[in-house]
Design goal:
The protein has ten helices and 15 strands. The protein is of the alpha/beta class. Strands 11-10-9-15-14 form a five-stranded parallel sheet. The termini are far apart. The chain has three domains: about 70 residues, no CATH class; about 80 residues, Sandwich (Immunoglobulin-like), CATH 2.60.40.3710; about 160 residues, TIM Barrel. The longest helix is centred in the N-terminal third of the chain and has 30 residues. About 30% of the residues lie in helices and about 25% in strands.
Length: about 325
C-alpha cells in the first residue's frame, strides 16, 4: 500500500516536471526573435498605430535611424540651423550721399537677445535701430564729403563683419554750350539765383556773339565764365593753328579754364593741352556726365549726380536740367 502511494506520488511529480518543461519551451518560442523583428511586426499592424511609436522608441535618440526604420512625424530630426551671415544692404553703390541710411541684413539663426556691437569710423552721430527683426539700420545725421567710412558689426558667438563705402565729393555745377532761345538762358540764371548756386559757366564764343547780354549777366550774378572754344568742334580733328584759333575765339572773362567740346582732347601733354597752355589756359573736365544733352530725365540726372558727386556736367539746353537744379541738394546729396 505504501509502495503504491510512492509510485503515485512519483508519477505526479513527473507530470509536473513535464508540464513545467513544456511551458518553458512555449515561452522560449514566443520570446524568440530580435528587436528588429518585433519592430517590423509592429509596422505590419496598421490597425495599431501606437505600436509604431513604441517600435520607434527602440531606436536610441542619439542614433540615426537606419534605412527602412520608421520615424514618427512628431519626432523627425530637426534640420541643422542656417549659419548666421550679414550683408550690407545700403549703401548699395560705391559712393554714398551724406544722409544715406546704412542697413545691414542678417540671414540665419539670429538671436535678438544676444549682445551686438555696431561702429562707424570716422565717428558719425545718428540713430541706430532695427528696421525689422533682421535688418539693423543706422540713420546718420550727416556724413562728411569725400570720406571713406568703415562700418563694423558683430554678434556674440559669431564673426565680426566689416564693410567700406565712400561718400560723394562736394558738388560743383558746371554748365556748357548755349541755348536756342534767350528765354532758356534767362530761366537758367533765375533758377541758379533762387537756389543760391554759383556755377562755372562754359558758353561758346558763338553763344556770346548771339546773346551779347549773357556773359555780363552771368558775371553780375557771381558765376565764373570760362572758355569753351568758339564753335564747339572736335579739337583733336583740327590742326594746331585751328585749335589755337578756336581757343582764341572763345569767351575770355577772367577765367583760366578751358573745357574741350565733347571732352575731346589728347590727354596730358598732348597738342590740345600745349596749345591751351600757350594762351594761359588749363584743361578742366568733369567727374559726372549727366547726359542731360541726350534728353535724360530729371530723376536720371539727379541719380547720376548723387552716384559720385564732384564736377557735374550740365547744359543750358537740357530737357530735364532746370528741374534737376531746382531739386538738387548741394549740402547733403
Amino acid at each position: 500500500m505504501i509502495e503504491q502511494q510512492r509510485l503515485t506520488l512519483l508519477r505526479g511529480v513527473g507530470l509536473t516536471v513535464v508540464a513545467v518543461l513544456a511551458l518553458g519551451s512555449c515561452t522560449e518560442e514566443v520570446g524568440t526573435g530580435s528587436a528588429r523583428q518585433v519592430f517590423e511586426g509592429a509596422m505590419a499592424a496598421p490597425a495599431l498605430p501606437a505600436r509604431a511609436t513604441y517600435a520607434h522608441r527602440l531606436i536610441a535618440r542619439n542614433v540615426a535611424p537606419r534605412q527602412g526604420d520608421l520615424t514618427a512625424p512628431d519626432e523627425a530630426p530637426a534640420p541643422p540651423p542656417i549659419p548666421l551671415t550679414a550683408a550690407l544692404q545700403s549703401p548699395s553703390t560705391p559712393y554714398a550721399t551724406l544722409r544715406t541710411e546704412i542697413r545691414i541684413r542678417f540671414v540665419g539663426a539670429l538671436n535678438l537677445l544676444v549682445l551686438r556691437h555696431f561702429s562707424i569710423d570716422p565717428q558719425a552721430d545718428g540713430r541706430l535701430d532695427w528696421l525689422d527683426s533682421r535688418t539693423l539700420r543706422f540713420q546718420p545725421d550727416r556724413l562728411a564729403f569725400d570720406t571713406v567710412y568703415t562700418v563694423q558689426v558683430s554678434v556674440v558667438g559669431h564673426s565680426v563683419w566689416s564693410w567700406q563705402f565712400t561718400t560723394i565729393k562736394p558738388i560743383t555745377v558746371t554748365i556748357d554750350d548755349c541755348a536756342d532761345r534767350a528765354g532758356q538762358l534767362q530761366n537758367m540764371l533765375s533758377v541758379l539765383a533762387q537756389r543760391h548756386i554759383s556755377a562755372i559757366m562754359f558758353p561758346t564764343g558763338m553763344c556770346q556773339r548771339t546773346f551779347p547780354w549773357f556773359v555780363p549777366a552771368m558775371l553780375a550774378a557771381g558765376h565764373r565764365v570760362c572758355n569753351h572754344t568758339y564753335s564747339h568742334p572736335h579739337l583733336t580733328q583740327l590742326s594746331d593753328a585751328q585749335i589755337a584759333n578756336e581757343i582764341r575765339g572763345g569767351v575770355h572773362a577772367g577765367c583760366d579754364l578751358l573745357r574741350p567740346p565733347y571732352g575731346d582732347w589728347d590727354g596730358p601733354g598732348g597738342r590740345v593741352e600745349r596749345i591751351a597752355a600757350s594762351q594761359g589756359y588749363h584743361i578742366f573736365m568733369w567727374d559726372v556726365d549727366t547726359f542731360d544733352w541726350a534728353g535724360a530725365s530729371t530723376q536720371d540726372i539727379l541719380d547720376r549726380i548723387y552716384s559720385r558727386g564732384g564736377v557735374i556736367l550740365l547744359h543750358y539746353h537740357g530737357r530735364g536740367t532746370l528741374e534737376a537744379l531746382r531739386r538738387l541738394d548741394l549740402q547733403t546729396g
